[in-house]
Amino acid sequence: MRSHILGKIELDQQRLKLDLDYLETVPVVQEEYDEFSNGYWKNIPLWNASGQADDRLYRDIEGGAVATEHTARTPYLSEIVTSVFNTAHLQMARTRNLKNAVVIPHRDFVELDRNADLYFRTFMVLEESPRAYHSNEDTVVRFRPGEIWFLDAASEHSAVNLSELSRQSLCVDFAFDGPFDEKEIFADPTVYSPGGEPEFVPRKPFTSETRDRILSLANVLERDNFRDVLFMLSKVHFLYEVHPAQTYTWLVDIAKATGDEKMVTKAEQIRAFAIDARALTDRFSLTSW
């Protein structure tokens, strides 16, 4: 996987708790890409394109990102953004939480104008949540608090929290107009210390028997549970040694076995939407037929 640890900081737990307590009070609303997740998924913009506190859409911007009103209530996290990172190329900074939920395998930046290699996403988990995992292509890892990761969001990736324990994180995005060195994102050069060993998540072998059990879902797949089956399939690669993109291969095959052409079309369309291409304002319904 291209995702890797860039460095690590020691988190001030006392100051962090005050920020996390505030974030917990911010209401959950419909997300810009709500079709990508189920369960509890909350993104709160600290910096974005407009400075509006309810603007959660990641997009290309001219000039620098603008602080939202949430920064006044999250002084510690805001300090991390401005002191650890070089904000000259900052596009967005947001907190993200996932509880008892999965994000379907997808690729980011496909709806934007730059070459994908000119976008650079960092991700840092802020609190322990032992059953919260991230996948990047054929690897599954558990991020540890304080680790600053480059997250290769342009490749197939996913996230899951198999528990109700909060998994707050800080996601900071940068974009460049030409070639760059990843250390350029740091204002504090002492933080940049690549080469840390990730915590890989052990998984069970994926066998032909496992595949047959998955495909047997054709016996119960209906339009009314199509969405539920997709999210269930999205969890399989966190448990078994298989690529996350197989989620959609299984979904298409299961839909074909039902003989319902509308479900086949829906399965093929969500694969294209999540993995291949979409426009910035495109949305996808898993429940309308």
From TrEMBL:
- The source's domain of life comes to Bacteria
Q: Please indicate if the UniProt record lists Oxidoreductase as a keyword.
A: yes
- Residue ranges annotated for the L-proline 3-hydroxylase C-terminal domain, each copy included: 184-280
**InterPro entries named among the record's database cross-references:** Asp/Arg/Pro-Hydrxlase, IPNS-like_sf, Pro_3_hydrox_C, Pro_3_hydrox_C_sf
Provide this UniProt record's keywords sorted from A to Z: Dioxygenase, Oxidoreductase
* Limits of the Aspartyl/asparaginy/proline hydroxylase domain: 29-174
Q: Which GO terms describe its molecular function?
A: 2-oxoglutarate-dependent dioxygenase activity
The protein depicted here goes by the name Quercetin dioxygenase-like cupin family protein
